[in-house]
Amino acid sequence: MSRDIKKNKFKVKRKKRKSMMITIVGIGYVGLPLACLCGEKGYKTFGISKDRKKINQINNGISPIKGDIYLEKMISRKFFTATSSYDSISKSDIIIICVPTPVDERYNPDLTPVKQSCRNIAKHLKKGQLIIIESTVNPGVCEEVVKPLLEEATGLQAGKDFYLAHCPERINPGDPHWNVRNIPRCVGALSRQGLLKSLKFYRHILEGEVRPMKSIKEAEATKIIENSFRDINIAFVNELAKSFEVLGIDLMDVIEGASTKPFAFMAHYPSCGVGGHCIPVDPYYLIERAKLAGFDHRFLKLAREINNSMPSYTVDLLIKSLNDLKKSIRGTKVGLLGMAYKANVADMRESPAVDIMKILKKQGAMVEVFDPYLPDQSTVKNLEELLKKSEALIIATDHNEFKQLSLSLLKKNGIKVVIDGKNCLNNKLIKKSKIIYKGVGR
Predict the structure, then answer these.
(1) Torsion sign (Cα): 81, 77, 70, 177
(2) Residue 429 has pLDDT above 80, yes or no
(3) What whole-number distance in Å separates Cα of residue 418 and Cα of residue 425?
(4) Neighbours of 184 (CB within 10 A)
(5) Of 25, 26, 86, 91, which one has the greatest count of Cβ atoms within 10 A?
């Protein structure tokens, strides 16, 4: 790797930066903070969305994503213009695609948003522009899908007439420390010139390290293996949770003990399921692409199978606990605490709580739901009302409000069973009472 790519920080004159224009296609959890940062750094920035309500909120300085204080502050300063029009593409120096890459009901990767974005961009594409894909994709998508779509529609050649790069997004919603400006990134491109342009851009807007990759395919692979690594390790501890329940071992205590080893161990924790748009989705992109090349990712598929089983396992814990009380789940009033996939955010993407709720209702339970960050998904106004209407609880999200649940409050409302899907309560204290408590692996 040449010295100029590895070391040069590409100092750019502020006057030149101000004249440059950026368009970001997709202003959700990834594109929205990126658009704010680009605007803050002096670029004239546009963000494209199909959601008219979101566009109006952003242009009025209101964040459409609640619970993220950092993002709310950035949006209020109106660093960029939100629009539904692609007209800014033709005038932009850099176009960044930040649209979702979901899976369908059968876990097949769905590249429709990426493909449609490319078709819309192609209508306005000009020579000399840099196209960056931040959406998470499997290795090969930029060369096999994006490049042909842009070239065939325009007659322009990638690497010569325009530049194509991939910088997989890294964002952690609600994290008070790691955000869009300081998380290190990796960049790969089809050509050396495209890589230099991409490094110049990201090293200007980011405080974290920007590492060049040898190829665009290697850049695509980094995000996939990051989240597959986490998925596999979470599956390992989730399987241990099922095993240790039978063996009568507190897995959480064992993990804390293993964590005292100062090397070669990284703690992962069991729970009622894996949520978010990355970990439960990204492995399928690698699984399916490798299948096309004739390789079977048995390990990744097994990890996905284990983690997908956890919502059912969590409900089974409730059923067994109710049986100990000689009660059926059918007709039991169950309070579901949390619909978000992680603590203290209003993000339901791939949340295991959704599956838990469906299973409970299918089993005939009378379900009440409360999430302080998602009032539209709640069936009650507050936690107190949910407790009054419940005989049993399942904690599906470890919001701070739920972690503060006291034994006296549980007793006051006649709660008979607590299934702690996030292992966030004081299990020893609750177990001393007459309330049945079960965590995941404890």
Answers:
(1) positive
(2) yes
(3) 10
(4) 12
(5) 25
Fold equal for 3-214 and 216-442: yes
Could you read off the pLDDT of 16-55 as tens digits, one per residue?
Answer: 445 799 999 999 999 999 999 999 999 999 999 999 999 9
pLDDT for the residue 68: 80
Angle between helices 282-292 and 216-247 (to 10 degrees): 120
Amino acid in position 193: Q
For residue range 78-122, list pLDDT tens digits in order.
999 999 999 999 999 999 999 999 999 889 999 999 999 999 999
8 A C-beta contact, residue 134 and residue 30: yes
Query: What is the CATH code of the structural domain delimited by 216-442?
Result: 3.40.50.720
The DSSP line for 229-271 is HHHHHHHHHHHHHHHHHHHT--HHHHHHHHTTSSSS-------
Tell me whether residue 330 is exposed, middle or buried, using C-beta atoms within 10 angstroms of its C-beta: 0 to 12, 13 to 18, 19 or more: exposed
**Whether residue 11 has pLDDT greater than 80:** no
Indicate the domain borders of the chain.
3-214, 216-442
pLDDT tens for each residue of 50-72: 999 999 999 999 999 877 888 89
Edge-to-edge strands, sheet with 436-439: 366-370, 333-337, 392-395, 417-420, 436-439
Beta bridge partners of 83: 48
| Segment (H or E) for 189 | strand 185-189
Encoding tokens for residue 74? Answer: 């950035």
- Say if residues 237 and 268 touch (Cβ distance below 8 Å): yes
Rounded to the nearest 5°, which phi and psi values hold at 185? -135, 160
Which residues are known to be catalytic? 278
CB 99 within 8 A of CB 135: yes
Class of domain 3-214: alpha beta
Crossing angle (nearest 10°) for helices 69-76 and 31-40: 50
> Distance between CA atoms of 251 and 379, rounded to whole angstroms?
33
**pLDDT one-digit tens code per residue, 373-416:** 999 999 999 999 999 999 999 999 999 999 999 999 999 999 99
Q: 368 and 361 in contact (C-beta within 8 Å)? A: no
Which contacts of 236-241 are long-range, i.e. CB under 8 A and separated by 24 or more positions? Answer: 236/268, 236/303, 237/268, 237/269, 237/270, 237/441, 238/270, 238/271, 238/306, 238/307, 238/309, 238/310, 238/440, 238/441, 239/306, 240/270, 240/441, 241/270, 241/440, 241/441, 241/442
